[in-house]
Write a structure and sequence with these properties.
- By secondary structure, this protein is mainly α.
- It has one domain.
- The protein has 3 helices and 4 strands, in the order H-H-E-E-H-E-E.
- A hairpin with a 2-residue loop joins strand 3 and strand 4.
- The termini are far apart.
């Protein structure tokens, strides 16, 4: 019975990681299409740096989540999983998309609240 719960959590983790990857790709595509094509006259070198920084901010938590989502079983057969870095991916996506409207949204990424802890972003 415990093995079925582990299989279910394993499948949920896989689906969650696929959805996060889709979110990352969609955010980058929207940013590139809107910022670079629609607002191309105001696109300056700072926006390239912002795109690179947000891309790095996506990669680090995604890779860590991916390694944490890999199935690991305890001695009694229970699936071990954990992590809360998906919050950083959602916040980074919000900042990237909203920065199309105003550069002031970049300030949002300075402070990230996650699981009752205040994390000062190392990105900035």
């Amino acid at each position: 019975m415990a093995n079925q719960g582990a299989k279910k959590r394993k499948e949920e983790n896989r689906k969650h990681m696929v959805n996060l990857l889709r979110l990352i790709i969609a955010s980058n595509v929207i940013y590139i299409l809107v910022r670079m094509l629609v607002f191309h006259s105001t696109f300056i070198w700072k926006h390239w740096i912002g795109l690179i920084v947000t891309s790095i901010a996506y990669v680090m938590p995604y890779k860590q989540l991916d390694s944490m989502a890999k199935p690991t079983y305890s001695d009694d057969g229970e699936l071990m999983d954990g992590g809360y870095l998906h919050d950083l991916i959602y916040i980074t996506s919000f900042v990237q998309i909203m920065s199309i409207l105003s550069g002031k949204f970049w300030w949002t990424s300075l402070v990230v609240r996650s699981r009752d802890k205040l994390i000062v972003s190392v990105v900035w």
